[in-house]
Amino acid sequence: MPEPLLMRYFDEIEVGDTQVTRGRTITETDVVNWCMFTGDWFLLHSDVVTSAESMFGQRIAPGLMVQAIAGGLLLPADTRSVIANYGMDRLRFPVPTFIGDTIHVELEIIEKEEREVGGLAHIEWRVLNQNGTLVLTCVNLALFALTRPEDDPR
Known about the structure:
- By secondary structure, the protein is α+β, with helices and mostly antiparallel strands.
- The protein has helices at residues 28-38, 43-46, 48-52, 63-74, and strands spanning 18-20, 24-25, 82-92, 102-114, 119-128, 134-144.
- It has a single domain, classed as Thiol Ester Dehydrase, Chain A (Roll).
- The protein starts with 17 loop residues before the first strand and ends in a 10-residue tail after the last strand.
């Protein structure tokens, strides 16, 4: 099995490299905690009655929460190759994510550019639910260390 993309160094990734993450189910606790921590008590996230009467028929997960959870599926805690999250482009939520949906992320390196300090990788995220429906798409820009140091044997 190949090493996860975000464990590799800039000189070890190529345009076209892909990875699929494990899945994670979005829970009611996730949504309530997100609303509490962020103050985002938007009715479609937090009000069962109002959201049941909406076009969605139920509560929807906050899009930025789905993005944050997707990010957690990507990055191993012990990676030394990623220096920083440089930005996010073209973030879209084509359909809602619901409580009980299980999401996973499909990644692809779509562009690389070397910088003075590290290399910038443009990584397309495709977040899909358990039915294979695209619920989030974006291009993440991640700053990578250029080469694997001698003390990182992975």
